[in-house]
Design a protein that fits this description.
single chain; about 260 residues; alpha/beta; 7-stranded mixed β-sheet; 6-stranded mixed β-sheet; 4 helices; about 30% strand
Length: about 260
């Protein structure tokens, strides 16, 4: 996992690991985002931050006990704001693993997730599914975030689209003033390379991002082997792109942004 370093003094990107921790919080006037994805019901040691962003694949195959395990873990974390989306692994209709008696259908997963976050929003845990959220960081800064679990179709799974027409309808819903974007899929040619060297991110999402000139942070996952972070110049500002997948790395990406 690698991270590029911006020259913009309004943003700082760090890799936190057991061997090298991220530096201390920069202090007043900054928001620290801790970025993770593809935890697949695993439990990880995370650095503290103002906001925890989880970019999907909360479970391995959509089983209710797996999802509950992840939600209980997220609830236990001390980050004041925690925002999660789902991913393609979070529903797998018709597959019943031998160690799990209950598997969610798409409808049941969505209803369970929505019911859960409605009861936990007061505790700072939010679930987004093609929807925006305005939240207030501990600094008092109100951030505009949007979350979508959608991915291009690949084998069986959830929240998948098969055509550019479907993709355009999904990503056109992202508000123009979005500052923090969370998707499960990466955009095309941004931290989306498989171990076979193929770029598999979404071209429609990449095109949409060119018009989201207020977006300062984009967090995603899905492609485990290209985890990391990079910083690009966009319309006079720096945008941080984070593939936050954790299965193949000890590093957790931490992004500090000046309010």
């Amino acid at each position: 996992m690698q991270a590029t370093s911006p020259t913009d003094t309004r943003v700082s990107v760090h890799l936190h690991s057991p061997q090298k921790e991220a530096p201390p919080h920069p202090g007043a006037g900054w928001t620290r985002f801790v970025c993770i994805s593809d935890t697949h019901s695993g439990i990880f040691r995370l650095p503290y931050g103002d906001v925890l962003l989880h970019a999907g694949d909360l479970s391995s195959y959509g089983a209710l006990p797996q999802l509950t395990r992840t939600v209980d873990w997220l609830k236990s974390l001390k980050h004041p704001v925690k925002i999660m989306i789902a991913g393609n692994h979070d529903v797998k209709v018709g597959y019943i693993p031998t160690d799990c008696a209950v598997v969610l259908t798409s409808f049941q997963l969505i209803q369970y997730a929505r019911t859960t976050v409605r009861s936990l929003a007061s505790a700072g845990l939010y679930y987004l599914e093609h929807e925006p959220l305005h939240f207030t960081a501990p600094s008092g800064r109100v951030w505009k975030v949007y979350g979508s679990p959608a991915v291009p179709v690949h084998l069986d799974g959830a929240f998948q689209y098969a055509s550019s027409t479907e993709a355009k309808a999904i990503y056109q819903r992202i508000p123009e003033d979005t500052e923090i974007l969370i998707t499960h899929t990466p955009p095309y040619r941004t931290l989306d390379k498989t171990r076979k060297g193929k770029h598999v991110g979404c071209q429609v999402l990449a095109s949409r991002l060119k018009k989201l000139t207020h977006c300062r942070l984009h967090v995603f996952g899905h492609i485990h082997e290209d985890a990391g972070a990079r910083v690009d110049g966009v319309e006079g500002m720096h945008r941080v792109s984070v593939n936050a997948a954790v299965p193949l790395s000890d590093n957790i990406v931490v992004v500090d942004m000046r309010d």
